[in-house]
Design brief:
This protein is of the alpha/beta class. The chain has nine helices and 14 strands. The protein has a single domain, classed as 2-enoyl-CoA Hydratase, Chain A, domain 1 (Alpha-Beta Complex), CATH 3.90.226.10.
Amino acid sequence: MQDAFSPATPPPPLTPPPIIRPPAPQSRRSRGWMITALILAGLLVFAGLVIVGQSAFHALRFNHSFKTTGAREAGPKLEECVLEDNDSENKIAVITVAGIITSHAPDSSGNNMVDVIQAQLDRARDDRRVKAVILKVDSPGGEVLASDDINKAIRDFETDEPDDHGKSGRKGKPVICSMGSLAASGGYYIASGCRWIVANELTITGSIGVIMHGWNYRGLMDKVGIAPMTFKSGKFKDMLSGEREPAEIPPEERAMVQGLIDETYGKFKEVVADGRGAAHELNKKSGKPLAENWQEFADGRVVSGKQALDLGLVDELGDFDDTVDRALDLTHLKSANLVEYREHHDLADLLSLFGQSSEAHDIKLDLGIEAPKLQAGLMYFLYQP
């Protein structure tokens, strides 16, 4: 027993407070990025498989046929689409010519309007089930050479082709033109090669003529204080230049330019006369011959569909359905499926976009109108109000 003077029992030692450790840092990577990465990886794998599959297909095809890919396959890639299924074994192909007729490629594919129309005609010619072609024209015209190329392609399509032994080979097929709201100048130039032309009563057509357009900006240069310096090898080397005073243009130059216009204009009238004459010879009394005074109206003026019928520039007034009926009548068919050939782009075309320059991706301002892209020095079959 302790007395009052004995020391007290020492208290137990204090327990140190627990150490609180911060939680381990977790990854803040968003799941959205992971999903995006997986999708991109899947697309790349799919693209690789498609490219490998296409390469294997062409390789097997080469080994099987022992010949390289045809030139036609190197052009526009077309796929057949059914516009109207009439449960028939026969077909009528519909080819559309819309807008300015030009030989310039609209995009990086390198295929211009002439190339595409030629490829469509070739596709229709090779298909034995295609009995006729309907050419839908809604165009103010365009370049002289492009219009002439399309007209020749149509005439060749309608002409019989002999075989290698000189005998009757592949038969030509009729082309029936269906005019839309506008089929003027170059639009009529290509229509004149068709076997039959159907126009609406309110169609604007005609405008048979040639135009070459340019600008003289010498007055503006004088106001700004810019003087041209031209060194040329001949008197007419700067022909059609807009830097000269109008008085500096020699009369001989004006006569030469007008001579080119007159020569091309004569070609236009010759094509119309030959095309409509050949069509009337085949159509006999059912078609319309050219009127004796049709050249009086071939001075660049436009005419309505009704006036064109009176002049013999078209064969019939009607709409697209009437054109289909006429195509069936000319081919002696009761019914046919309507098809068209549309351009399609595969994955290789899509991937090629990444290798294009920035010029191909320029932003264009849509003003609601399509201004003709005329180039100086070129002649046009064009109706330009």
